[in-house]
Every structure is written in C-alpha cells, then in structure tokens.
Design brief:
about 120 residues; globular; 5 helices; mainly alpha; single chain
C-alpha cells in the first residue's frame, strides 16, 4: 500500500525514498547490534528495525532521522518522567508519534533551519 501511495503521490524523487528506507533500516540495525554487544541482551526489536525501513520509504531520507530524533525524545520523556519503572517499554508508540511529527512539521522545520544557514 505504501509503495503504491509513494508512486501515486511522490514527495520528491524515488531515489530519496529508497535512500530513506535503506538509511532507516541500516541505522536501526546498527543500533540494535551495538545495544546487543554493549548490554549483552536485545536492546531493540527486529520489528522496530523493519518499521523504520518502511518509515524511511514514506518520509524519505531527509525526514527519517528527524522522525527518529522525535521518537527518542518523546520516549525519553515518557519513559523517565511519566512511567518511572525499570521494565522495558515498547518503542513503537514513540516511533509512531515521532513519524507523525516529522511528517507534519518536518518540512517546515527543515526549511526554517536551512534558512538560518
């Protein structure tokens, strides 16, 4: 469905969508690999990795990392300030919120940032 949507309503060029999917997948896979080596347990699920590959295709390369930043920021706030427990919490709800924020506000934030340079 998302591939059909991307073909019918492209944001820029298809290469940015492909690069976004690859970058999202590889970056999250590297984070999972590092977390497993560092903490000797699974730090990030395989579903999160695959989800970021799809999100990368939808948001394209220039918004996929903004989405991850928003997701991590929201997860940090909710995980530390609100929940205050030691059990691991799923990252998918934060990925969803971060992706929505990047999709809605990302282009204008990038335009604002690039206007400052």
């Amino acid at each position: 469905f998302l591939i059909i949507l991307r073909v019918l309503f492209p944001l820029t060029t298809p290469i940015y969508a492909i690069l976004g999917g690859v970058a999202g997948f590889i970056f999250m896979w590297l984070m999972a690999w590092y977390g497993k080596k560092r903490f000797k347990q699974e730090a990030l699920g395989g579903g999160d990795i695959k989800l970021y590959a799809i999100i990368g295709v939808v948001l394209e390369i220039h918004l996929v990392f903004m989405s991850l930043f928003f997701a991590a920021l929201i997860g940090l706030f909710i995980g530390k300030a609100v929940i205050k427990r030691m059990n691991p919490i799923p990252f998918v709800p934060f990925i969803y919120l971060g992706s929505i924020l990047a999709y809605v506000f990302g282009p204008s934030l990038l335009e604002l940032y690039l206007g400052l340079l």
